[in-house]
């Protein structure tokens, strides 16, 4: 995991997103590609509620406002990037040959128009995508994270709005016997290898999984240099998402790792109803892989 794409929105949410990206990249000496896509009025207007009822001068006012917001966001995003690089002493580099070995580095990219396609292209060209949770209208599709999850072929690191001090102290792997869980675990291996404490947890659902299978997984992870504790949660009427959230609080988890799957615009995690809870409401960063 040496290349990480960071979406820069030009909002206050840039700070927790940037800080989380740095926390993931620094121990790996990765290169961070900060990307901002300037949204044109014609592209952004389709995500404005009830805009189809605007005509004439009213529509022009909406378009002018969108253009002003786009310029403001682009200026702020670049400022946030420059401020971060100065504060964290991050070197700017496009190629590994520009750096001494083991150095954290970054690059800035700004694109204009056709936002989803350009973000998707850059996402596929990096090892990990770091982005904030959608909380406001910013000209991008509200379901951008879901699209990236399903179509990019890369893991996503979804960052909450609240800033957290650590990322790789305690990592909770939310495991289920599925291919998506296995892919998420594989994607997270570089981060798990530099984490202080790893916990694998699984919630009993019907006949799927077993404590023995969980211990076997922990045993195999030892060959990757990862020592993991096991937590098997017996079947209960409580929602799986709630039980995992409670466990995350108990162990002081800084990061959650889980498989995720979606079809089109429909969300669903490997734990079924967990999607809304973890993708939209988790207090912690969540690493997802489809």
Describe this protein's structure.
- The protein is an alpha/beta fold and 290 residues long.
- It is 39% helix and 23% strand.
- It has nine helices and twelve strands.
- The protein has helices at 14-25, 41-44, 56-88, 115-124, 144-151, 179-193, 211-221, 240-251, 274-281, and strands at 3-7, 31-38, 91-92, 105-112, 128-132, 156-159, 170-174, 197-203, 228-233, 255-263, 266-269, 286-289.
- Strands 1, 2, 3, 4, 5, 6, 7, 8, 9, 10, 11 and 12 form a twelve-stranded mixed β-sheet that branches.
- Helix 5 links the parallel strand 5 and strand 6.
- The longest helix is centred in the N-terminal third of the chain and has 33 residues, at 56-88.
What order do the helices and strands come in, and which of them pair?
Elements: E1 3-7, H1 14-25, E2 31-38, H2 41-44, H3 56-88, E3 91-92, E4 105-112, H4 115-124, E5 128-132, H5 144-151, E6 156-159, E7 170-174, H6 179-193, E8 197-203, H7 211-221, E9 228-233, H8 240-251, E10 255-263, E11 266-269, H9 274-281, E12 286-289
Parallel strand pairs: 1-2, 1-5, 2-4, 3-4, 5-6, 7-8, 7-10, 8-9, 10-12
Antiparallel strand pairs: 6-12, 10-11
Family: Belongs to the universal stress protein A family.
Protein name: Universal stress protein family protein
Pfam families: Usp
Task: List key phrases describing it.
alpha/beta; Rossmann fold; 2 domains; 12-stranded mixed β-sheet; 9 helices; 12 strands
């Amino acid at each position: 995991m040496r290349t990480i794409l960071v979406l820069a929105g030009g909002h206050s949410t840039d700070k927790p997103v940037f800080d989380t990206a740095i926390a993931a990249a620094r121990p790996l000496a990765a290169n961070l590609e900060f990307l901002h896509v300037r949204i044109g009025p014609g592209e952004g207007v389709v995500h404005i509620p009830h805009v189809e009822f605007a005509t004439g001068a009213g529509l022009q006012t909406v378009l002018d406002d969108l253009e002003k917001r786009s310029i403001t966001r682009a200026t702020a995003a670049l400022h946030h990037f420059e401020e971060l690089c100065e504060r964290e002493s991050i070197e700017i580099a496009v190629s590994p040959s520009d750096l001494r070995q083991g150095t954290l580095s970054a690059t800035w990219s700004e694109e204009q128009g056709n936002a989803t396609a350009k973000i998707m292209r850059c996402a596929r060209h990096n090892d990990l995508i770091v982005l904030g949770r959608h909380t406001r209208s910013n000209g991008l599709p509200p379901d951008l994270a879901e699209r990236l999850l399903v179509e990019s072929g890369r893991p996503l690191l979804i960052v909450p709005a609240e800033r957290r001090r650590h990322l790789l102290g305690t990592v909770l792997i939310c495991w289920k016997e599925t291919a998506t869980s296995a892919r998420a675990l594989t994607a997270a291996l570089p981060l798990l290898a530099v984490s202080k404490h790893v916990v694998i947890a699984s919630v009993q659902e019907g006949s799927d999984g077993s404590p023995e299978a969980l211990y076997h997984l922990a045993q195999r992870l030892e060959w990757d240099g990862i020592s993991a504790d096991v937590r098997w949660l017996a079947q209960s009427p409580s929602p799986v998402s709630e039980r995992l959230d409670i466990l995350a609080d108990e162990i002081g988890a800084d990061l959650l790792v889980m498989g995720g799957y979606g079809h089109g615009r429909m969300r669903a995690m490997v734990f079924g109803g967990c999607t809304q809870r973890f993708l939209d409401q988790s207090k912690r960063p969540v690493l997802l892989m489809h």
